[in-house]
Amino acid sequence: MMDTPSFWEEISFRIDAENLPIRADQIRERLRFFPAMVGSQTILEPLTVGLLWNQASHTGLLVWLAVLLLMHCAEMWSWWKYRSAVQTVEQCRMWSRAFNVFAGVVGLMWGTAVMYFFPVDLANQALFICVILGLSAGAVTMNPVYPPALYLFQSSILLPTIVRVAYEGDSVHWVLAAMLALFTFVAINSGRQLAKTFFISLSQRYENLFLVEQLTKEKSRAESANREKSRFLATASHDLRQPLQALMLFSDAIQEVAQEKETKQLSAQIGKSVNALVEMFDELLDVSRLEAGIVEVRWQNFELQPLLDRLYVDMAPLAQSKGLGFYMPVVDGVVYSDPFLLDRILRNLISNAIRYTDKGDVDVRCAPVVEGFRFAVIDTGIGIAPEALPHLFEEYYQVDNQHRNRRKGLGLGLSIVRRVEGLLGCKVEVKSEPGKGSEFSLVVQRGETEQLAQPFVITHSRHDLRGVAVALVEDDPDIRLLITGLMADWGCRVFAGELAEDVMREMDVAGLRPDLLVCDYRLPQGVTAVYVIERMRELWGNVPSLVLTGDTAAEVLQEIHASGAILLHKPIAPARLRTMMHFALHGEG
Q: What is the Cα–Cα distance from 436 to 382, expressed in whole angstroms?
């Protein structure tokens, strides 16, 4: 913000590139008042001539009026022609000079009238002085936007009035002159205070605009950095998931053929490491899917117990491996929510509780409340310090993991919880005491038993895929070979290739149409799975499609989702791939 100008700086009204925006606004504001100022004076001046007609020379009054009316014509002509010319330093300086000339000449003419046309009798003197004071008061209210004209006009009409009144020489006029001097001081001071207020408001406005501009630039930089981060993560994710997919397939194959005890143990350890990597990538995937806005809530009424049973089967071994007590309630109840997303919230909360608890218990509770059912995950772990609570749901934030121990994950579990709770319309609340444990709770809406959906199960059964004709488009030869072998073992007829054209040609020669398309998203020559899906649908109609990808970029996920294909992220376990192939063909898991 510019410093408030001094009295002499106000009079000089310096205009340069630095203060141009403020000066231009001051001049625009005075131009806005210009017609009102000139119009009021144009009406007042003939009335004044009428007041003084019997007190002064008629010729002198008419000449005085003619000069003022000519000046007002010049003022209005200048205003009409150049009122928009307030863009550059030179244009503003031109208007500043014009304002000074106009105010000086008009003020001088009124000062001349006071000196030469001052009435003889006291009554007319009082009326004339009232006219002068009215002009002065009007200048104070209209001219503070441009201080030089204010000071010039006030001094031109008030100082001659004081001198002329004092010139009468008697005590009444001396008192009146003193009162006029006091009025002059008050009027000029009031005008100056109004001018300062206007200047400060303009200065603050431009300071705020500058701050907003800086904030916008910083926001743009942050968004650009975030896009670059997302692009980097998407690229890195894709490049890393390709070999990880092959590693998972090789690991499963080794575990199936391993015979010796040591080999079995080694293959099991390899499998654990691969699964740990997959879990980390899945957390990144969940965040990407939520950011892309492709997660759709499937509201339904379902029983709680199957969901809790599934959680117990999956989470109890994790707790038992750390020597923790793990308790899951038995609940006879129906809720209205999305079973998969609710499972995701509870699974992340339970996993987090187990991860940060070294002794004691992890207790999952579910109690009926007025709104529905209140879930609570209570642990006896390390607890959370009060200063850490505001950051708890931020991405990559982890309590007491400065060294980024990989066994404690990536710090995305609670971030995913916060995003999913927004979709489900519930709120996860936290209570914690350092060293004593934590409690995470949420309330889920009660459901209607009469509208009960099928029980919530996640099955990994070995679905029958015998005789299914599969078009497999995958540019990685190792992954293509392994998936082809798996599908052949499942009884599928697989037509595989690096390019869609090769696969389509093989199927055309065999006289078959694909029952299912399984396609990698990124293919050679800039081709994507969406293009392959469109080509095959043009040729064979609506072919059920699975898209395998390592990408996590939001635009990629949205594009795949819009194509109607089922999205599977690498690495994908063989059992999961088989399940989703059956789902794509028959619409059931």
A: 6
